[in-house]
Description:
Layout: H1 22-34, H2 41-54, E1 58-62, H3 65-75, E2 83-86, H4 92-100, E3 104-107, H5 119-125, E4 130-134, H6 145-154, E5 158-162, E6 170-171, E7 174-175, E8 182-186, E9 199-203, H7 206-216, H8 249-260, H9 262-279, E10 286-287, E11 295-296, E12 302-306, H10 315-324, H11 340-346, H12 354-361, E13 363-366, H13 374-390
Parallel strand pairs: 2-3, 2-4, 4-5, 5-8
Antiparallel strand pairs: 1-9, 6-7, 6-11, 8-9, 10-12, 12-13
Helix pairs in contact: 1-8, 2-8, 3-4, 3-7, 9-13
Amino acid sequence: MTQVTEPSTKEFLAFAKPDLGQEEIDEVVDTLRSGWLTGGPKVAAFEEAIREVAGADYAVALSSCTAGLHLALLALEIGPGDEVITTPLTFAATVNVILHAGATPVLADVNDDDHNISLDDVAARITDKTKAIIPMHYGGQPCDMDGLVALAEQRELRIVEDAAHALGASYKERPIGALTDASVFSFYPIKPITTGQGGMLTTNNEDLADRVRLLSLHGLSKNAWNRYTEKGSAEYQVLAPGFNYAMTDIQAAIGIHQARKIAAFQTRRAAIAALYDELFAALEEVRTPTVHPAIDHAWHLYPIRLHPDRLTIDRAQFIEELRDRGIGTSVHFIPINLHPYYIEHLGMKPGDFPIAEGIYESLISLPIYPRMTDGDVERVADAVREIAANARR
Ligand SMILES: *Cc1c(COP(=O)(O)O)cnc(C)c1O
């Protein structure tokens, strides 16, 4: 069946959009008026809110998820001579932090079904130098945490989770946030909740939390944070060459209200995913996400995969057709081993990770965010179905 349709002239549907209300605006204004812009009560309240969602004993608010991953590696004393295993199907930050720590990134290929790191391939790449694994919960679907934890215990490795997509997710009814040495969340605008920029590390390890906090505040001794308050003292000591990685109270002001909406956002995202699944059920050109039982998905992403042998157009053309119909999409991710820096400096090359690369070639992330109406979801699904029908082999 071939059908010629005029591109939609409707308003452009963005790939992602934060959901911010008057509460966030008022809280930011209140923070500005209070004069306490960083290291204050709003950061403490936001840490408490995320600590609860993550089911963890400790939470440290930071300037970004990237900062949290970096500090987690430093706090675990991972550095030069050490290898850290992670996935090629991730954002550059996951690999860059390993380099910032002075360690060597080693990639393991992913599972074809859930796009998460393959435990078999991780096991195959462990050497005497391997110190840690950084699993990334792709799109908000938790990795096989029982398998990862068992492997790490057996081989005496640390685990730092890149949980940038996974706030609100759980594995066998246990929230992501306290299942390993550390979990790190992102509050970048398109992530499950936002503070503009921001991140949070959660852990049950008090020493690790203390070390991360210290390193996030220039390495200053504990009594330094209140040095500008009534009770504070100007006496402090530098205990480590730390970083300026703290979250501000302006960011936390947004976060306090975003945190209250996590469950509602997640419910809406899950409903959108269910509606897409239903609308694509009979569409043979498209493969919808595989979801494992016994997990609660954060639905940060809704990635579809095209069946290239059933279509006369490639992924780039498919994305172009969606754009012509006013629909924004993205691709998560260009595999790490295809970027020039890692090719030139780490000896990676195309072909190293056939599963991740195969997924990438047919991958499109469709819009999924709380502000989308069912009508928006239907519009995206109609466009996908129409493009597939026009390009059917
Ligand atoms: C967004 C993202 C990050 C980085 O988060 P920031 O808060 O922007 O530093 C890291 N890893 C993954 C997988 C991401 O998607």
